[in-house]
Amino acid sequence: MWGRGRDMGIQGGYSGPGVFLCALFLLSASCRCSALELDANLAASLTVDATPQSSRKMPANMFGIDFEEINHSGAGGLWAELVSNRGFEAGGLSTPSDIDPWDVIGNETYITLSTDLTSCFSRNEVALRMEVLCDNGKANTCPTGGVGIYNPGYWGMNIEKGKTYKVILHVRSLGSVNFSVSLRSSDGLQSLASAPLISDALGFSKWTKVELLLQSGGTNSNSRIQLTTTKKGVYWFDQVSVMPLETYKGHGFRKELGSMLENLEPRFIRFPGGDYVKGGRLRNAFRWRETIGPWEERSGHFNDIWDYWTDDGLGFFEFLQLAEDLGASPVWVVNNGISKSDQVDTASILPFVKA
Ligand SMILES: *[C@@H]1O[C@H](CO)[C@@H](O)[C@H](O)[C@H]1NC(C)=O
Ligand SMILES: *[C@@H]1O[C@H](CO)[C@@H](O)[C@H](O)[C@H]1NC(C)=O
Ligand SMILES: *[C@@H]1O[C@H](CO)[C@@H](O)[C@H](O)[C@H]1NC(C)=O
């Protein structure tokens, strides 16, 4: 809609005034459409009648919000998710893949990390495989604090004292599990909150979804989540989410930013963007249908306008919910088969726009 509509609008905008100008000139003398022939000293005057009698009140529904996905203004900004690359999908399907911004705690004497395609989610198959080589009380004892992985979120997680954070993760293991899930400062030294993730050998033999609530004992705007252990084993993790328990109207948007939007009293909200919807190439464009349903099962996509992966946890459904929570009309934008560099045949548009 946005893509094609805007392009046509620009072209139409050029022909319209041209025709109109020619009509005006016709009244005086001959039609002179070529700018080259115009007199350099030509002056024009424009009279605006701004008297109250001739004014019109601007309708309230003309005032609203245009949301645009710019440099993580969505996930990492308005959207309260704190983990970046929570499904380990950003590195692509060729495994082992890059897990950035996740990183390892410990070195290869103690732990090896890789990715494989064993996720329980068929539309985003990549999972993290962690093999812990060290073991407490054995010859290769784990370092104090354990080994594992951490995720710093988008430029560090803002963790605040007294607030509760909901951690959701999916885990599988070949044996018993004894991990610590913690929120810590960016150097790992300050512990803000932690909870154990413990099970016997059978507990996580199949993929299991775990939910934990962590209440922070301190404030640090540059924090990270850590999953650490001091126990030998082979473990898999996938779809790891950290969100503040309190969000704007309980629907996942950052509370203070949601309130600021509400205070603007918008009558509409346009989402999820302009170029973001279009994509640089059609295969990277935003497809609304893939951004609804359970968040773990959304395939995510590469945002080639800003060059980062997005898991589409902030999707079409969430924006519609935000519109409702703000009391604003949703002005929803869908891709209708055109990107900045390629497009489908007009006859093939239906699958893009169909509900
Ligand atoms: C995105 O925002 C971050 C944090 O403010 C900044 O460091 C970075 O330069 C920005 N990136 C672009 C491409 O503007
Ligand atoms: C791993 O770290 C330990 C302790 O710091 C060190 O003794 C060991 O040499 C390191 N191993 C490698 C392969 O870097
Ligand atoms: C889990 O590991 C911690 C830290 O090494 C240890 O103190 C605790 O006893 C372990 N718990 C179980 C159930 O093994």
From TrEMBL:
UniProt-recorded Gene Ontology molecular function terms: alpha-L-arabinofuranosidase activity
Signal peptide: 1-35
A Pfam family reported for this protein in Swiss-Prot or TrEMBL: ASD1_dom
SUPFAM superfamilies tied to this protein: (Trans)glycosidases
PROSITE patterns according to UniProt: PROKAR_LIPOPROTEIN
Domain Alpha-L-arabinofuranosidase 1 catalytic: 261-352
Keywords recorded for this protein, A-Z: Signal
PANTHER family per UniProt: ALPHA-L-ARABINOFURANOSIDASE 1
Protein name stated in the entry: Alpha-L-arabinofuranosidase 1-like
